Amino acid sequence: MNMPEKLPFLDLITPHRELRDELCASFGRALEGGAFVGGAAVESFEREFAAFCDARYGVGVASGTDALRFAIMAAGVRKDSIVVTVPNSFIATGEAISQAGCLIDFVDIDEQTYNMDPARLREYLEEACAVDSATGELINKRLNRPVGAIIPVHLYGQTADMDPVLDLAERYGLVVIEDACQAHGAEYFSVRRQRWMKAGSMGHAAAFSFYPGKNLGACGEGGAVTTNDPEIAKTTRMLRDHGQSQKYFHEMEGFNGRLDAVQAGFLQIKLRHLTKWNEERQQAAGRYKSLFSESGATLLAPFAPDWANCVWHLFVVRVPDRHGLIKHLNDAGIGTGIHYPIPLHLQNAYRSLGYQEGDFPVSERVCAEILSLPMFPGLRPDQQERVVREVGAFLSGGDSLADRAAAEGLKLALTN
Length: 416
Hints:
Strand content: 15-25%
CATH class of the largest domain: Alpha Beta
Largest sheet: 9 strands, mixed
Number of strands: 16
Shape: globular
Order of helices and strands: HHHEHEHEHEEEHEEEEEHEEHEEHHEHH
Number of domains: 2
Oligomer: single chain
């Protein structure tokens, strides 16, 4: 029996093959110029990426984790204060908070968007916290610590619902840092501003990752901070470079977190293709939804609200027997991923925070069922038909997710 052609979860080969000549020429320029750390290539990319995000400043750094850590510190979030985020994220979100000297706390997610639930954030700020009459600070009553910042995560290529988050932050004097590591080019319609706004332009600062699998990925590691605040940009530049304001003049203790010139050159080339690549992802997402609707498969497809222009970093569905479906698809030669199987509050790394099962039930329920299907620019219709056909074949025996979803008021692929 012939083995089926392997359909990868992510194709990192084709785009680099197509851009090979441009990428090699860029590498050649770096070799000839001898500027490997900082310099014109990094500065040029920073300007172009900031403009792409509709932000005034962009600062290239070594990774998305560095970007988020530096943004927290540069925005002036006080050490030992609480930074509120969500459990359904990659651990780098938590690492950046704790490594900046802050304490992590969580609010649960919205079960349709998988992003921060503004209602639960409001409940946290209004009920779990109180304003200190002497200092005016918002204090978490259980932890007896001030709350300093909120980090909404723009997960899977879709922005969080930012207007209510920003409204609450303004009311309580909190910093907002966007974790935009999966949202290069995503947009949010702000009723406050009456216009579409890019991920990376709404909070005090934002963090992006250029890990190879991202919508805009380096040929290695990389990241960036975007901001409209010149002081945050200035401080981030110092933090990434050992705290230097100029060579050997150290204003603070910083880090070695610089974006190298070779990666900056690669990213600048790729940035000019990003809009087209995002459009291809959007077309592929539309095909998936249409195909699943026609198939009648009883799974939860991604929900895209009308205030979000998603760039589909991932196409994430929910099924009750995830491991069974993974095995079925693997046997059929189809790659998958899980983003993410264990919510942050239940990770061993954060056991000391004292969270237990049941503390964030939506995140726990979602993390047990989510499965990422193949999604990348150039994904062909016939490949997607194959994915949907195999998913349908596995689910054809029936399951209870449709009944449960109807009871919970969630939208199925049929109605999405």
